Amino acid sequence: EVQLVESGGGLVRPGSSLRLSCKVSGFTFGENGVGWFRRRAPGKEREGVACINNGDGRRYYEESVKGRFSISTDTAENMVYLQMDNLQPEDTAIYYCAVQMMISRVTIAMILAGDYDYWGRGTQVTVSS
Predict the structure, then answer these.
(1) Residue 105 pLDDT > 90, yes or no?
(2) Distance (Å, rounded) from C-alpha 116 to C-alpha 22?
């Protein structure tokens, strides 16, 4: 069974950095994908933030985080990371890690929640002065 556990969230001031971690078990990095999503408010849909195609290493980002966020993996430790720099109040959300068991090559760059098969429970990030 695939399980994901996120950590690293917290309360920070605008302009600060955080690194989120996601421990993945029951999963082997290969021709599949991992991604980070966020839900900014209860009742709102999860929006894709960043993802990696583990098959070719390509990374994709939501427009508002390009240049500020960076997704990476440590395949030896089965970890997925999201480095977030220059955080802004609009980045406040619950952040979720997810895996896509088979790459959807047509939509991977769109980072769609419906393409992902397993999810963690999330970690809260709050950016406030």
Answers:
(1) no
(2) 15
